[in-house]
Amino acid sequence: MIIFLLIIAVTATFLSMTLISKTAVRVICSVISAIVVIASVALMVMNDREHFGMHKITETTTQEIYSVSPSKQMSMLLYKSIGTADKDRVYIYNKTTSQKKPSHTETDKTTNKVKTTKKSTARLVKSTTRWTYKNNTYKFWFGIAGNNREVSKRVNTFYVPNNWITLSTEQAAKLQKNVKKNQAQMKADAEKYVKAKVTATVKSTMAAALKKNPTMSASDQKKLMADTTAKASKQYAAQYQAQMMQKMIEEAKK
Predict the structure, then answer these.
(1) How many CB atoms lie within 10 A of CB 51?
(2) Full DSSP string of 164-222
(3) Which one, of 131, 148, 130, lies nearest residue 139 by Cα?
(4) Residue 195 has pLDDT above 90, yes or no
(5) In 3D, which of 126, 72, 65, 73 has the Cα closest to residue 99?
(6) How far apart are the C-alpha atoms of 209 and 205, rounded to whole Å?
(7) Nearest Cα to 103, choosing from 129, 124, 82?
(8) Helix 23-49 and helix 2-19: axis angle, to 10°?
(9) C-alpha angle 152/153/156, rounded to 5°?
(10) Cα angle vertex 168, ends 167, 171, to 5°?
(11) CA distance 69 to 93
């Protein structure tokens, strides 16, 4: 509405100076309308630069998020650096498990944080601070500017489980390439690693069991050996995979 008041005041100033013949009346009308013009412009500038008539409100939402990695064994939160100094990042994530095109954080007036959590699920807490008019009066006068609910700042906090990996898109591509390249060798090495570890574990377990119970029957020994083998195989396979993956992640980050 203030823009219309400005137009009316400018028009009144012009008409006062050109159409009113009496000097005193002309001066008074011109001064009053000129003051309205100056005040209107000043208030519009204050509204634009200093958010006159507005105050900040903060809205917070929490949403569960999902990994962008196609592998079920590897959960990832990706980011892409904006610029060469890596001061600003856009984080990439999924809002649903069936999402085809990933979601990403905003680039303007945005701060992103990543924190680890002991929980098994990942979530994104969005805190958005906006400028809104203090009341309907201010909105009536300045709302035409279209700046109601203008974003002042955004803070995105990602809470991800400890087993999630945070990588840049370039690092993720490098990791994927290395995994594919070394997959066959890793499988062969894993079999050797697991076999050696399982053999040693079964041997020590059986020795301890027989020392404790020298009269253990053959069937009990066989059962203990089978249970120990199955448990140790699973344990050392996961251990080897974790070690190798951590090694490849470190290489990808170089």
Answers:
(1) 17
(2) -EEEEHHHHHHHHHHHHHTHHHHHHHHHHHHHHHHHHHHHHHHHHHHHH-TT--HHHHH
(3) 148
(4) yes
(5) 65
(6) 6
(7) 124
(8) 160
(9) 155
(10) 80
(11) 9
CB atoms within 10 A of CB 162: 9
**Amino acid letter for position 139:** K
Residue among 240, 128, 110, 111 nearest 185 (CA): 240
Tokens of 66: 């999902």
Taking each helix axis as running N to C, give the angle between helix 218-253 and helix 169-181, from 0 to 180 degrees, rounded to the nearest 10.
130
Structure tokens at 196: 């050696």
Compute the distance between CA of residue 235 and CA of residue 231 in angstroms, rounded to an integer.
Answer: 6
pLDDT > 80? residue 127: yes
Separation of alpha carbons 249 and 171, rounded Å: 8
**Is residue 115 within 8 Å of residue 91, measured between CB atoms?**
no
User: Which of the 8 DSSP states describes residue 23?
Assistant: H
Q: Quick count: other Cβ atoms within 10 Å of Cβ 88?
A: 15
CA 250, 253, 254: angle at the middle one, nearest 5?
95
Torsion of CA 220, 221, 227, 233, to 10 degrees: -170
Whether residue 9 has pLDDT greater than 80: yes
Mean pLDDT for 210-216 is: 92
Locate 157 and state its tokens.
């906090």
Q: What per-residue confidence (pLDDT) applies to 57?
A: 98
What single DSSP character describes residue 95?
A: S
Cβ–Cβ under 8 Å, residues 1 and 40:
no
